[in-house]
Design brief:
By secondary structure, this protein is mainly β. 0% of the residues lie in helices and 57% in strands. Strands 4, 6, 7, 11, 12, 14 and 15 form a 7-stranded mixed β-sheet that branches. Strands 9, 10, 13, 16 and 17 form a 5-stranded mixed β-sheet that branches. Strands 3-5-8 form a 3-stranded antiparallel β-sheet, with no helix packed on it.
């Protein structure tokens, strides 16, 4: 950029002075990293994933764009995080086999009170099949520069291994092991109505397990 100044005296004489100046734009180096989840995180359909992104200079960032399975969400709040609930894989109730099931019994509480009669309780087990979930995060600085980080996770499918309904605030559920699969010692998660229960059980052949469930 050039700046000129002209001085004129009372006799009409003038003189021009020129000055050149370079305009330097403020450039921010954006080095985005996905802090959570990590590469080796194991996730199952139905899980809730908290995605957190970080740069070396978060205060200079204007916004972050989270892309999960192709769906974009923009956030402008520090620290940049995004919560994503993995959809459950459609699954029929596990086939009954000749292996004795693990029977789970207990109270079922929904939103702080005993669940109404007829409320469905479902037991979910991570399946052997897996799909890929692609996570991308793009941070954009106040000065316009951006950087993108990506992560691919393997997602195990959820198998519905048993379901029942609540009666008098209680449930009795047979968690069956389908033929050709081994559930021994594997975790089972539960759903009450449309919400996930906080408790987890571990499958044992022929066992009777007392497990009170709560979902808020």
């Amino acid at each position: 950029m050039k700046i000129s100044a002209t001085a004129t005296n009372t006799f009409g004489g003038s003189e021009i002075d020129l000055l050149s100046a370079d305009i330097v734009r403020n450039v921010t180096t954006v080095n985005i990293k996905i802090v959570t989840p990590t590469v080796n995180t194991k996730v199952t359909a139905g899980d809730t994933i908290v995605i957190r992104a970080k740069t070396d200079n978060d205060s200079d960032m204007a916004f972050a764009t989270f892309s999960v399975d192709g769906k974009e969400t923009v956030t402008t709040t520090h620290p940049f995080t995004h919560t994503y609930v993995l959809p459950r894989k459609a699954s029929t109730v596990a086939a009954v086999s000749n292996v004795p099931p693990n029977v789970f019994v207990g109270e079922a509480r929904l939103d702080g009170i005993l669940a109404p009669d007829g409320t469905k309780v479902v037991a979910w087990m991570a399946g052997s099949d897996a799909s890929k979930l692609v996570i991308k995060v793009t941070d954009t600085a106040n000065s316009g520069e951006s950087d993108t980080a990506s992560l691919t996770l393997l997602v195990s499918g959820s198998i519905n291994v048993g379901e029942t309904t609540v009666v008098n605030g209680n449930y009795v559920l047979n968690a069956s092991q389908p033929t050709g699969q081994s559930f021994l010692g594997e975790p089972i998660t539960f759903g009450i109505g449309a919400k996930g229960a906080e408790q987890t059980g571990f499958w044992e052949q022929g066992a009777a397990t007392i497990l009170n469930l709560t979902a808020d």
